[in-house]
Amino acid sequence: MVTDPWKDVHPLLTCKLVQWDYRVPFGIMHSPELSDKVRALLDVVGAMTSLDS
Description:
- There is one protein chain.
- The chain is an all-alpha fold.
- It has a domain at 29-53.
- The chain contains one helix and no strands.
- The protein is flat, with a radius of gyration of 15 Å.
């Protein structure tokens, strides 16, 4: 997946469009002490990823 925010990250970094049937795992880094907003985000992401299983 190519998104506009990545286009100017580094001059030697390029994005190529591909037609692969492939999913990329991801992670979310956060502070050990969660704010209410971060906890809500993680709850939504957790619910969405459990639907894909």
